[in-house]
Amino acid sequence: LEPTPAPAPLRGRRALVTAGPTHEPIDPVRYLANRSSGRQGYAIAAALARLGAQVTLISGPTALAAPAGVERVSVETGRQMRDAVFAALPAEIAVMTAAVADWRIADPATDKIKKRPGGTPPELRLLPNPDILAELSAPGPDRPRLVIGFAAETSKVGENARDKLARKGCDWLVANDVSGDVMGGADNAIELLTPQGSEHWSRRSKEAIATMLAGRIATALGPRTP
Ligand code: CTP
Ligand code: CA
């Protein structure tokens, strides 16, 4: 008897996943960043690949190895991430888990900033980074069929997430409460907001959340029409 092949409901579909933090340079040795580890995004990329999708993982700096069967594009800044996302199109599925820095340093120094004896600390002027999720969600010929945003909140999670879903123009939004040990931790608990309503997925491993979400994505897209 031949072994039964694993079911691959996403075979032939292209997916892009963003993950990790971005690093916004202050000078050649310093940067602005956040606590994202990339674990949830990497787990989602792996889960989509297990279901047969052709996955491009656009990752900020993390300590993680690229999951098996996933093409990883490594970037550093939010603007590099935006360019890599649009270069990875077309894709039917986009899952945007990256914790993109909301601001970048207006004029990063080309040499290391020195502290001079008695000198005042430098003032950092910030500029907004592009909102990759909002840009990708805007109507257009290359818009993925299913765009999923993530929302990192520390308070009023449900309420902020509803606002964010409307503001970003994405199709689904996964809200996580990052007030505890979610960022960098092994587990996650989420609220999944779709046009059909909202669901709470209680605390479990980021891999388990990823497997559930990949299954949902496969169900939503349905069988592939040749
Ligand atoms: N996102 C993005 N590009 C940015 C900022 C955020 O693509 N410059 C995406 C994230 O990957 C995530 C979603 O937008 O999927 C929400 O990110 P979040 O930081 O929670 O929301 P913001 O709109 O940046 O609002 P705030 O940080 O003020 O809560
Ligand atoms: Ca943000």
How would you describe this structure to a colleague?
By secondary structure, this protein is of the alpha/beta class. The protein is 25% helix and 29% strand. It is built from five helices and twelve strands. It has helices at residues 39-50, 78-87, 132-137, 157-168, 206-221; strands spanning 14-19, 24-27, 30-32, 54-59, 70-74, 93-96, 103-105, 126-128, 146-153, 172-177, 187-194, 197-205. The strands form three sheets. The chain has an eight-stranded mixed beta sheet, with helices on both faces. Strands 2-3 form a two-stranded antiparallel sheet. Strands 7-8 form a two-stranded antiparallel ribbon. Strand 9 (146-153), helix 4 (157-168) and strand 10 form a beta-alpha-beta unit. The longest helix is centred in the last third of the chain and has 16 residues, at 206-221. The model has no long low-confidence stretch (mean pLDDT 94). It binds cytidine-5'-triphosphate and calcium ion. Cytidine-5'-triphosphate binds next to helix 3 and strand 9.
How would you summarize the topology of this molecule?
Layout: E1 14-19, E2 24-27, E3 30-32, H1 39-50, E4 54-59, E5 70-74, H2 78-87, E6 93-96, E7 103-105, E8 126-128, H3 132-137, E9 146-153, H4 157-168, E10 172-177, E11 187-194, E12 197-205, H5 206-221
Helix pairs in contact: 1-5
The chain binds cytidine-5'-triphosphate (CTP) and calcium ion.
Order of helices and strands: EEEHEEHEEEHEHEEEH
- Poorly predicted runs of 5 or more residues: none
* End-to-end gap: 29 Å
- Given the structure, what is the number of helices? 5
Radius of gyration: 19 Å
Give the ligands present.
Answer: cytidine-5'-triphosphate, calcium ion
What is the structural class? alpha/beta
Q: Give the rounded overall mean pLDDT.
A: 94
- Portion in beta strands: 25-35%
